[in-house]
Design the sequence.
């Protein structure tokens, strides 16, 4: 029965994706505001089909400019965070070349960073500034990689460099960073231990499609998404200190979620 349902879910997701692609492409090209909201609706539908049940703790900050910094366990994190509010992600440049999923990431208006080329980094920073100034939140997975979800890895302070462009800008004169923690909590209604949490974690050399198939046929997953208080970033901030503050807050929320 799991296989029958699994194939049905795959077929429906593919159909919905094919329907949404031309609309989102047109919205982006024509700069229509729905380009920000269609991914929200799309990801909510996909999460419902995947039986990902989400409980939100706290709220998305109203302050702007705003950047979310989150832990990272799985590609599911992208769907989950996108289901709450219009946002864009900051991702490694190589993701842009992935078959299918790279194209979908572009339709999400993901910003791809190539830190090996200084000219590309400056261009990306300029785009990030423009998005943030317009009130569009960005999401940064500050660990720089994925973990199994039981722990939060150290945040990379280099990824917080974008804040310097905004705090020194007279127009914005600041930035708010909101810590976010995604904790996969229950599988098929049962508390997840470290082994069970590997069902959702996408780490190492795991293939994306096999992992997607396991999620589809694996049963309902309960997830806790915790939003911390936004951290104001002003002139003279220390990038390492800021990364540590955000890291500690995300780790604190993760521990609380695991104990609940």
Sequence:
């Amino acid at each position: 029965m799991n296989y029958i349902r699994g194939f049905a879910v795959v077929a429906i997701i593919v159909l919905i994706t094919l329907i949404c692609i031309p609309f989102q492409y047109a919205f982006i090209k024509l700069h229509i505001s729905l380009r920000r909201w269609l991914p929200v609706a799309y990801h909510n539908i996909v999460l419902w089909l995947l039986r990902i049940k989400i409980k939100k703790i706290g709220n998305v900050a109203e302050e702007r400019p705003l950047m979310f910094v989150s832990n990272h366990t799985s590609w599911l994190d992208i769907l989950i965070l996108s289901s709450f509010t219009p946002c864009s992600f900051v991702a490694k440049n190589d993701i842009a070349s992935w078959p299918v999923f790279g194209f979908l990431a572009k339709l999400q208006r993901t910003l791809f960073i190539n830190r090996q080329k200084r000219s590309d980094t400056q261009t990306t920073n300029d785009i990030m500034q423009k998005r943030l100034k317009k009130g569009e939140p960005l999401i940064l997975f500050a660990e720089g990689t994925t973990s199994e979800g039981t722990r939060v890895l150290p945040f990379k302070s280099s990824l917080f460099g974008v804040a310097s462009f905004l705090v020194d800008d007279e127009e914005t004169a600041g930035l708010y960073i909101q810590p976010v923690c995604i904790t996969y909590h229950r599988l098929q209604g049962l508390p997840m231990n470290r082994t069970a949490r590997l069902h959702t974690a996408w780490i190492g050399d795991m293939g994306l499609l096999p992992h997607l198939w396991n999620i589809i046929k694996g049963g309902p997953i309960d997830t806790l998404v915790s939003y911390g208080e936004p951290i104001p970033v002003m002139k003279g901030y220390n990038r390492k200190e800021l990364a540590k503050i955000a890291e500690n807050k995300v780790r604190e929320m993760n521990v609380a979620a695991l104990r609940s």
Notes: Strands lie at 52-57, 66-70, 88-92, 111-113, 138-141, 175-187, 190-191, 221-227, 231-233. Residues 2-29 form the longest helix (28 residues). Residues 77 and 182 are 7 Å apart (CA to CA).
